[in-house]
Amino acid sequence: MEPSDSTRESVQSAPKTPPASHSSSSLDPSGASSQPIPQTTPSKGGTSTRITGYINRDDLKRDLREEMKGMDHPFDQAAVDKLLNEVKSSYEIDQYLSATELYDNDWTAVPTDVETPGPEPVGENRIYKPLCNIFNDILGYFNLSDTRCAHVTSSSVKHEDGDAIRGRPDLLVVGRGSQFRCQGWGKGWRSCVSFIDGKQDKDVALIAESKVDWEDQFGKYARHQPTRIFLYTIIFTEKRFRLYRYDRCGILYSDWLNYRESGANLLVRAILLVSSSCASAIGFDDTVTVRGDNKHVFRMKKEVLPVTTTTDGLSAEKEELVTNTKDSASPLQKKTEDVELTEVNFRWSSFSLIGRATTCWTVIDNATGETRILKQQYVNVNRTPEHEILGQVQGIKGVVKVYFAQRIGKDISQTRQGSTPEGFHDRFLYRLVLEEYGDPIYRVTDFSLLLKALRDAIKAHQEAYCDRKILHRDISIRNILYAKDPNNLREGEALGNLIDFELGIRIDRTSSCHMTDFQTGTRAFHSVGILEAAVNNLSYVLNYIDDLQAFLWVLVWILDLYDPTPDESDESLRKRFQGSAQAAFDQKDVFLHRCTKGTVSIKSRYPHPVVLELILNLGSFFAKKMEDPRPTTPDQLVQEARDVAPGDYKEVLDHFQTAIDKLPKAPPIQLRPVHEVLKDSDLPLLLLNLGSFFMSKRTVPRPTTPDGLLREARDMAPKDYQKVLDHFATAIDKLPKAPPIKLRPVHEVLKDSDLPLQTSKQKAKSKKSSSKIGTGSHLQTSSLASSSSSYIPPTISAPESSPPRKKARTEQGRAA
């Protein structure tokens, strides 16, 4: 359970300039000069490395498996017993089993055999309805039916905020209350309490592969719960069940527990556990509620004066960032005030299951009416929280302004009741309140503004790196924001502003989290050096060149996104950039070397002279820098930041400034309008998904006998229909939020067809002509009807009378 407000820890607003005490002693040449650079936190693939949503189930499955690899562990049996025993007393459970009509020494309606042919199809679907009835019977008996209800999900569950891929657990437990964004009993993730899947008991024997498949399946569902700290779920067979717990540190799974006959009490306890009316007991954060209009309300605590720098125990990697004095061991009592923030809109989520799971909202401070960005993530206990890193770079023009942050509740390990395996990456829930800025940089309305925004963001990056010794390490199209009003910049605001310093580090640090955490970042913008190290499974120390190169890939991504005449035969750069590390490395390595030679492929991709010059200059610069030796000690990094980096930043900034200066005199740059780009990110998914589906069906063997057709209709066709219907439903769901679709008016379409609509003049002429010839119009109608009824399929040879009939119809068409 979550603690009360009094146990929650608030952290102070980051100062505008870093305190002197945060400076590292490693800057002293006599300090860490002989020490090697701390090993970088190892990279880990997963859903958070992707910049766009998923449209392909196989891609999602691959990334989820990578994300969950090594993160699933057995649930400590003592912890499972404690969880199940705490829900109700044995007396209460026995009373229910005596009272219900669904149990008589065994669950009467749940079949023990799902393989024998009968009135219902064979398989695990035979247990769905009986288990759902047991669920709702238990909820009713224990007075939970007003706030909890179980459904058999015969169709996919809509993803309101996620990607295009829909999922369908076999049973969905939904709820009502202040934690849910949907208050009806509908089948939606916004009202999800838990989800249940059914399997055949014989599949338990295939434990290795089946277990991974089941965890994948649950992972797809669990990632759509952004305000849940953890959740419980169950897999049932006709005889046994297994309890799962998903949280941001991994997956716990229990032994298989028999729920037949004398084990019936375990089933009752498990259902009460996953359906608990206590929100915090099933992983809801009780500092978040939902208003009647389905908007989140976040309650936080903000530290107020008097303020003293304290050691708060959030990080073991903070020797450079936190005052290390005798006073900090006995901090003064902190004074806090309550802050209530109401959601304006959902901005973005990584929808990752394990790790930081970053989610952002635009919110309003209810007390001041000011609009802010609220960022939520799960921070590794050994990593420096972002507000402390931002404290080091406050005051730099073009760096996001932080107001305050708060650590929420307990470490996840404390909620696991002892089930923490060796090498466990512990995390805590953390929220950060930031200044609001404009759109992400990929929403391009003015190409000149795009280049100026990139230039300003690079300037901010230079000051953070060279002057404050902070390296960002996660430059992407989402982490650079335009000014809120480019024509009226606020204090400290630039045309392009850097956000998301959560992976930032001090370059003079002497320790790292490489043994206790993993690093994700956005692969699409990783440098060639990072990707090469990932391909070869080597350790790699990032420096400023890797971040600078990421700015190039941001520009390339945007140019590819807005290309008005994309080459359909050329696979999208963006797809390869966020593919495997090998695919991204191959593409980017070739790209840089082609820039040095000015090859035809580069020139044809960027025909505009200003854009071509900028891309060639930047690509050639980074190709040359790949050959430079890299620092091996913290002192060398600091020296590089002082002596070498300023010249490199200047060269890159000069290339941008040259392009900016040339734009007014150059021909206009043709880009697709932003509304078309954003529209294309959703609507063509329908055609893409349908086309991919039917291509995959081409390789499926076709039935050759009536029995085969019947079997196909029973076993395979329902799944195929469901896939097609899911694709249509996804497109329908997205339409209200997408830009309007422009279609030609129907009269224009029919004007171009074989049977044009009559204009008013034609109608008058036809009426006048009709009055002269009496029944001519009726004859004409009759002839047309007769003609159309004489259609002959192309596979049947036409009789000799066909040509005259066709000729007559043509003449009638001309007359019309």
Tell me about this structure.
Residues 1-57, 753-816 are annotated as: Disordered. The protein is 38% helix and 14% strand. By secondary structure, the chain is an alpha+beta fold. The protein folds into three domains: 54-285, no CATH class; 287-305 and 334-436, 2-Layer Sandwich (Phosphorylase Kinase, domain 1), CATH 3.30.200; 438-687, Orthogonal Bundle (Transferase(Phosphotransferase), domain 1). Helix 3 crosses helix 6 (264-274), helix 11 crosses helix 14 (581-597) and helix 12 runs antiparallel to helix 16. The longest helix is centred in the middle third of the chain and has 21 residues, at 447-467.
- Helix proportion range: 25-40%
Mean pLDDT: 78
Strand order of the largest sheet: 1-15-16-14-13-12-11-10
CATH H-level homologous superfamily name of the largest domain: Transferase(Phosphotransferase) domain 1
How much is the radius of gyration in Å? 32 Å
In the predicted model, the low-confidence regions spanning at least 5 consecutive residues are 1-33, 307-331, 513-519, 753-763, 766-816
The structure class reads: alpha+beta
**Domain tally:** 3
Question: What's this entry about, in short?
Answer:
GO terms for molecular function: protein kinase activity. The protein has 816 residues and is α+β, with helices and mostly antiparallel strands.
